[in-house]
């Protein structure tokens, strides 16, 4: 039953659009499956900190260790997983991803229930088991990201419509941001009005049920797209040869070499730089928790708006220029954050300091529009510019690079831990964002030999001047 597509192939032919796009129901299946996977991940992401505070109430060390391990494990295993996934067939990737991710969440949820119910189990020795769960969860998370990348990249290679890829990228990101916004809300209601144990049980139950539906939906997409089956057959034929080559070459170093040879390496590095430390700006202890929550919610809503704006911009000014406008629009919004530093430094009363934090949160929230538009642009540049055989490898290294930057953010937060010195983190964040914008600008100039069409700008200036002269003459 699980290996059968939801709609047979004769129906698929009749529902396919004339322009070569995929049947709409297959795209819907892909979106629903992605939602199921991301919702469970976002539930865990929000709840894990609350579990640790409840289990180890006298120390925040474990929460800090979790953050470091989360970034470090992805940074370490990202290239390896990317190389490994690239050598497997599509079906095996799905099976390993869905089993590993959902099993980790099921075991994690069950473990949390046991620890929360049995107070005698709250010992430091049990934390080693929890660390193992964290590492497994992050490995499966890396496979999850690469699996989605593999599906979309295969869709790209078999679809003649560039707009289809742009729309799919935007909707996939919109689903992820929507889960990031609403999963904590639902989980928070369960924790507040029922209990932490109930939330842990709901996490385990959700993943136990959803894994079967996820696999059914993804396999239906696979069997409904001939290009995926053809690619899967080629991978199966070459699997033994590729595995031997990867083992002999050293998968980790080889993955980084492949990544650094790509034309899109500078946009990838720029994307990793963006947003490294700015999220720490919401942790200041003078702002009420519900206000911080509202700020994060507004940021998520603006991020969702970026997934709507991006296809419109991309269709009018191309992916390259959309990325340029996005990255510099975020930079402009971050100027508000720099202004908040000056407001704090030269403010003479407490109200000025509170206002500066509102400025900081506002600047961060507004910058999300440019951030997620740039994120989508770089994803599409990599899908268009990276060879099919290297896509999963490059995706793994990209995840690793972004996790390394996140890890540096944690380290900076530890080194600059005094709230009075928080302005230093904000300033460092702005410098890093500026470096990212300059890197992408250099990349764009290198491949296009220009940034703007100055002849068009001169034409506009001449037209504006001429129009002004005519208006002045008419007034006289």
From TrEMBL:
<comment type="function">
    <text>May be involved in iron transport and iron homeostasis.</text>
</comment>
<dbReference type="GO" id="GO:0005381">
    <property type="term" value="F:iron ion transmembrane transporter activity"/>
</dbReference>
<keyword id="KW-1133">Transmembrane helix</keyword>
<keyword id="KW-0406">Ion transport</keyword>
<dbReference type="Pfam" id="PF06963">
    <property type="entry name" value="FPN1"/>
</dbReference>
<keyword id="KW-0813">Transport</keyword>
<keyword id="KW-0812">Transmembrane</keyword>
<dbReference type="InterPro" id="IPR036259">
    <property type="entry name" value="MFS_trans_sf"/>
</dbReference>
<feature type="transmembrane region" description="Helical">
    <location>
        <begin position="172"/>
        <end position="196"/>
    </location>
</feature>
<feature type="transmembrane region" description="Helical">
    <location>
        <begin position="94"/>
        <end position="117"/>
    </location>
</feature>
<feature type="transmembrane region" description="Helical">
    <location>
        <begin position="356"/>
        <end position="374"/>
    </location>
</feature>
<feature type="transmembrane region" description="Helical">
    <location>
        <begin position="129"/>
        <end position="152"/>
    </location>
</feature>
<feature type="transmembrane region" description="Helical">
    <location>
        <begin position="20"/>
        <end position="39"/>
    </location>
</feature>
<feature type="transmembrane region" description="Helical">
    <location>
        <begin position="60"/>
        <end position="82"/>
    </location>
</feature>
<dbReference type="InterPro" id="IPR009716">
    <property type="entry name" value="Ferroportin-1"/>
</dbReference>
<protein>
    <recommendedName>
        <fullName>Solute carrier family 40 member</fullName>
    </recommendedName>
</protein>
<keyword id="KW-0472">Membrane</keyword>
<comment type="similarity">
    <text>Belongs to the ferroportin (FP) (TC 2.A.100) family. SLC40A subfamily.</text>
</comment>
<feature type="transmembrane region" description="Helical">
    <location>
        <begin position="422"/>
        <end position="445"/>
    </location>
</feature>
<dbReference type="GO" id="GO:0016020">
    <property type="term" value="C:membrane"/>
</dbReference>
<feature type="transmembrane region" description="Helical">
    <location>
        <begin position="264"/>
        <end position="282"/>
    </location>
</feature>
<feature type="transmembrane region" description="Helical">
    <location>
        <begin position="203"/>
        <end position="222"/>
    </location>
</feature>
<feature type="transmembrane region" description="Helical">
    <location>
        <begin position="325"/>
        <end position="344"/>
    </location>
</feature>
<feature type="transmembrane region" description="Helical">
    <location>
        <begin position="294"/>
        <end position="313"/>
    </location>
</feature>
């Amino acid at each position: 039953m699980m290996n059968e597509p939801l709609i047979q192939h004769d129906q698929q032919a009749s529902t396919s659009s004339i322009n070569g796009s995929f049947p709409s129901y297959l795209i819907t299946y892909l979106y629903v499956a992605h939602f199921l996977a991301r919702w469970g991940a976002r539930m865990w992401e929000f709840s894990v900190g609350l579990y640790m505070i409840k289990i180890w109430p006298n120390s925040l060390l474990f929460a800090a260790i979790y953050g470091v391990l989360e970034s470090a494990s992805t940074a370490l295993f990202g290239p390896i997983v990317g190389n490994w996934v690239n050598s497997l067939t599509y079906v095996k990737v799905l099976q390993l991803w869905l089993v590993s991710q959902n099993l980790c969440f099921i075991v994690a949820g069950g473990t949390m229930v046991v620890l929360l119910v049995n107070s005698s189990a709250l010992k430091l020795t049990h934390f080693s088991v929890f660390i193992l769960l964290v590492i497994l969860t992050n490995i499966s998370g890396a496979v999850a990201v690469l699996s989605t990348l593999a599906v979309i990249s295969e869709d790209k290679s078999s679809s003649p419509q560039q707009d289809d890829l742009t729309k799919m990228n935007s909707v996939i990101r919109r689903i992820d941001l929507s889960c990031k916004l609403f999963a904590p809300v639902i989980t928070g209601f369960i924790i507040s009005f029922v209990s932490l144990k109930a939330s842990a049980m709901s996490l385990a139950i959700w993943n136990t049920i959803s894994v079967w539906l996820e696999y059914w939906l993804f396999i239906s997409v696979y069997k409904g797209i001939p290009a995926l089956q053809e690619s899967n057959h080629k991978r199966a034929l070459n699997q033994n040869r590729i595995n031997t080559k990867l083992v002999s070459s050293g998968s980790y170093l080889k993955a980084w070499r492949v990544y650094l040879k790509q034309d899109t390496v500078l946009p990838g590095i720029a994307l990793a730089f963006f947003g490294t430390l700015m999220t720490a700006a919401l942790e200041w202890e003078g702002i009420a928790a519900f206000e911080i929550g509202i700020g994060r919610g507004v940021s998520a809503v603006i991020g969702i708006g970026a997934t709507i704006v991006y296809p419109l911009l991309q269709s009018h000014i191309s992916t390259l220029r959309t990325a340029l406008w996005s990255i510099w629009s975020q930079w402009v919004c971050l100027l508000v954050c720099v202004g908040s530093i000056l407001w704090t430094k030269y403010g003479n009363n407490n109200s000025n300091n509170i206002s500066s934090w509102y400025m900081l949160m506002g600047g961060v929230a507004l910058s999300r529009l440019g951030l997620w538009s740039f994120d989508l642009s770089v994803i599409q540049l990599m899908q268009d510019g990276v060879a099919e055989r290297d896509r999963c490898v490059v995706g793994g290294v990209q995840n690793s690079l972004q996790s390394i930057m996140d890890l540096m953010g944690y380290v900076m937060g530890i080194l600059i831990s005094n709230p009075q010195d928080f302005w230093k983190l904000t300033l460092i964040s702005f410098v890093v964002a500026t470096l990212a914008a300059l890197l992408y600008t250099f990349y764009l100039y290198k491949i296009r030999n220009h940034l703007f069409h100055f002849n068009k700008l001169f034409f506009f200036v001449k037209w504006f001047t001429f129009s002004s002269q005519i208006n002045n003459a008419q007034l006289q």
